[in-house]
Amino acid sequence: MRKLLALALFLAAIVLPAAAQRRTINLDSTVTTKHQVTIKGQKVPYTATTGTQPVWGEDGKAVAGLFYTYYERSDVKDRAARPLVISFNGGPGSASVWMHIAYTGPRLLQIDDEGYPIQPYGIRENPESILDIADIVFVNPVNTGYSRMADDVDKDKMKEKFFGVNADVKYLAEWLNTFVTRKGRWASPKYLIGESYGTTRVSGLALELQNSQWMYLNGVILVSPTELGIEREGPVEAALRLPYYAATAWYHQKLPQDLQQKDLTDVLPEVEAFTVNELIPAIVKGGFLEGSQKEAIAAKMARYSGLSEESIQQHNLDVPLNFFWKELLRRESFTVGRLDSRYKGIDRQDAGVRPDFNAELTAWLHAFTPAINLYLRDELKYKTDIKYNMFGPVHPWNNENDNTGENLRQAMAQNPYLHVMVQSGYYDGACDYFNAKYSMWHLDPSGRLKDRLSWKGYRSGHMMYLRKEDLVMGNEDIREFIRASLPKKGQPAMY
Prior knowledge:
Structural class: alpha/beta
Largest sheet: 10 strands, mixed
Distance between the termini: 86 Å
CATH superfamily of the largest domain: Alpha/Beta hydrolase fold, catalytic domain
Number of strands: 14
CATH architecture of the largest domain: 3-Layer(aba) Sandwich
CATH topology of the largest domain: Rossmann fold
Order of helices and strands: HEEEEHEEEEHHEHEHHHHHHHEEHHEHEH
């Protein structure tokens, strides 16, 4: 009998810890800590609430838990007047880490003034954070950060609920309703900020929150926006790349001397005018464009892009992005980055039509991954063995029926309070600045809403805030946007 009991205890000692160590998510949890940050010379006390909040299924059962970090200034008397900024990153499949610890949040990762990794890894105060004027919540959609589906759901079946343009918007709107209710923020002016695919997300959310949750916004901030479902195929798509090529070539000093001597913002209007007034009409003519005219257009494109006339002619005036990233610095044996063309990469060989890897993304993962893991665990005291997904498995992603740009227009039309600001980096080749302008121009064809639409440009890439000067400017632009979009006391939402 004693031998059997000893054997049972031995097996329990092996089996029970193994079961206890299974990496599972707590769908509903919070950890709250108190902190202080100095912003613009002013001490700002705040609480940080880190945890998970359930996504509810149709039967009222929790089917996932979304990980979030919520920063709330703690010396505010009138919470009803205090703005709430709801922040998403993109991918789809990206965690909220990027803007969280490099842009608007109260803590900043260790990087140099241009955004490159430095060691030792770590976190410092963010003196530019917008926490002085607004509370912020950083949200991680399913499979990003620590967010996961519940253990007892059919994960393959649940993909349809989470992984698609419209599914994503629908469940996140419901989740935000719960969050705002739990935190008592219904009276607060509300803002959405999204980066990259996050701009698709927040554009769709603006209307979904109004129509399905009866939650109305004061502002939407689009950082490095996607196309938002706005069509631009064919000649327009081909031509719109040129201003980005010009910005990148200017940065790497590949333009003719007369252009190189000018400031970037003096060069780009000339390139933009050529793109709209000459290049698009020329590409529209296709193979029937007269030979002499084609040569003249190719010569101008070469002047503005740093590429050879021959290579432009070989592409029939339609130069692919991958080729540009490979070709511009080919003679120096470097490639340029996709998301930020200030970054250089080294390929196995100089030959080829595309870079081997994205030089900028590798550098960013190098800097961000240690920082967010250390910060959440050591400073915010959130303990878990679940892996923090910088990029999580969310594919295949259903991109059908992407009407998010039109959804944002409808939300603005229905809500006179709602303003939109676009922020773009000149050296972003994935969501380039001129395409962002094009999206803004075509968001509302009537032109009736243009006084509530604005665009800001910065001398960096996709994550323009990684450059210190743009971190300062970008956050200040957000402050001004929030102040300008808050209605005066008693001002009604009416036309």
